Every structure is written in structure tokens, then in C-alpha cells.
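Minimal example, chain plus prephenic acid.
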Amino acid sequence: MSADVMDQNTGAGEPLAADEIRAMRERIDEIDQQIIDLWQERARLSQTVGKTRMASGGTRLVLSREREIVERFREAMGPDGAQVALMILRAGRGPL
Ligand SMILES: O=C(O)C(=O)C[C@]1(C(=O)O)C=C[C@@H](O)C=C1
């Protein structure tokens, strides 16, 4: 691919491919924003659950519930899914 043809922003070697990539990137950006919004909403809910439980005299954590969540992510997405679940959990309840 010659340097004069390559689109600097998309990395594509042809203008049509660059257009396709730009369109797909728009959707990728929308998806990323939804992931961020959902991540933050979940973290807030998780913190509220923890405060509600502790205010009632209960525990900070429920590890059996955390294991179920990690397992659900592992089944759907493999070992990386389990890592994602651990990061999601930490975003809510904080580090163990
Ligand atoms: O479901 C709960 O009981 C929560 O407190 C939420 C949550 C979570 O973020 O999913 C957080 C901490 C607990 O140890 C288990 C799960």
C-alpha cells in the first residue's frame, strides 16, 4: 500500500474502505458509551446494595453471589469474561 493512498485516520488503503471503517467506528463509539453508562449505573447500584445491607447489620460482601456472577461471565466469555467480572465487581464494592 502506498503512503499517498493510505487514509491516516482509519489506516485504510482505499477511500471506500475508509468510509466503511468510519461508519463502523460510529457504532463502536455508541457501544462504548453504553458500556461506560451501564458500568457506572451498576457500580452505583452495587454501592447502594452494600450500604443497605450494612445498615441492616449485615455483611459488606456476599461471596456466594460474587461467585455466581464470575461464573456467568466465564460461561459467556471464557477466562477473559471472569477477569471482566472481577473488575466490574471491584468497581462497585471496592477492592477485597
Ligand atoms: O448483590 C449484592 O448483594 C451486592 O452487594 C452487589 C455485589 C455486586 O456488585 O454484584 C457486590 C458485592 C457483593 O459481595 C455481591 C454482589
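The mean pLDDT is 95. The domain at 15-93 is CATH 1.20.59.10 (Chorismate Mutase Domain, subunit A).
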